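During the no-cost extension, the postdoctoral fellow (Dr. R.K.) reprocessed legacy sequence entries with the updated structure-token encoder. One reprocessed record is reproduced below for audit purposes.
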Amino acid sequence: MEISEFIEYVRRYRHDFVGIAHHYFHDEHEVEDAVQDALIRLWMARERIEPPERFRQYGATATRNICLDKIKQKHGLHFVEVDLAEGKTSGHSPQSVLEESENETLMLQCMKELPAKYKELIRMRNGEGLSYKDIANLIGSTESSVRGMVARARSILIRQFNERRKK
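Re-encoded structure tokens follow.
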């Protein structure tokens, strides 16, 4: 991919990458940092983006992954502050933090077992925040079909999650 082509794709899709980053961050500086990091990754991988028309997909995935990495770095540990004067805690109790962490781990395990097409749909819809229409265009399907597939994927995830929680 030539530099002029890369610049054109950046101009065309940068707004989409900013939208994805806004899904994860509310601070404009963090959003811009994530998008800039994604663009650097895209530049480094420009020769591997085949066909070049998939630039948006690669960029969306890179942006999402960078945002998740930044969140993990920033919130790697959960702290509970205690106001000793009033005996109150701010944030979540250690028990709720543990339960939340266990539920997240369980959900990730369920996602790994999801069939590839459903996993990708959930990633595009929930992870990247794409509309049903955008997903339909990307995969060459109808919007109503995508809605049905996403609903089935969610249903499978919920069933697997509930079955594992009972164990």
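Residues 3-74 form a domain with the Rna Polymerase Sigma Factor; Chain: A fold (CATH 1.10.1740). The chain has a mean pLDDT of 80. The remaining legacy entries will be reprocessed before the final report is submitted.
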